[in-house]
Amino acid sequence: MASRAPEQVDALRLAVIRLERKLRKSAGSGEVTPSQYSALFALDRHGPFRLSELGRREQIGKSTVTRLVAGLEARGLVSRAVDDVDARSSIVAITDAGRALLIHLAERSNDYLRDRVDELDAADQDRLFDAVEALAKLGAPR
């Protein structure tokens, strides 16, 4: 497939950044960082994980994932336990409090996004939802 013009790539990047900012603001930024939200989401949907696996999924290094989990654990949003298979490793799981916060933030973001999508005409809505799978692939771990 032919490469897109730099202007198109710039426009896509800017649109994603702006939308992410709006979603974060609508959810009440300050409750968790984008990295913390992403980790909570991954743990809720696919966890629990070894600390190293969470880092790989989130595409962050060992020291970064350790700090991230420590911050979430201090707030009671995740729990950490020794891995039964490898006592040198930790297993991280989302707690009920973490899940409740995630639901709260998702509801606020979804309300905002739903309202904005409703402002689009039907053709734009169809094009937007047709692009969801491709956008998800862009953010997937490699």
Automatic annotation (TrEMBL):
GO terms for molecular function: DNA binding; DNA-binding transcription factor activity. It holds the Pfam family MarR_2. InterPro entries: HTH-type_Bedaq_tolerance, HTH_MarR-typ, WH-like_DNA-bd_sf, WH_DNA-bd_sf. Transmembrane segments: none annotated. Residues 1-137 form the HTH marR-type domain. Keywords: DNA-binding. SUPFAM superfamilies: Winged helix' DNA-binding domain (SSF46785). The keyword DNA-binding applies. This is DNA-binding transcriptional regulator, MarR family. It comes from Nocardioides terrae.
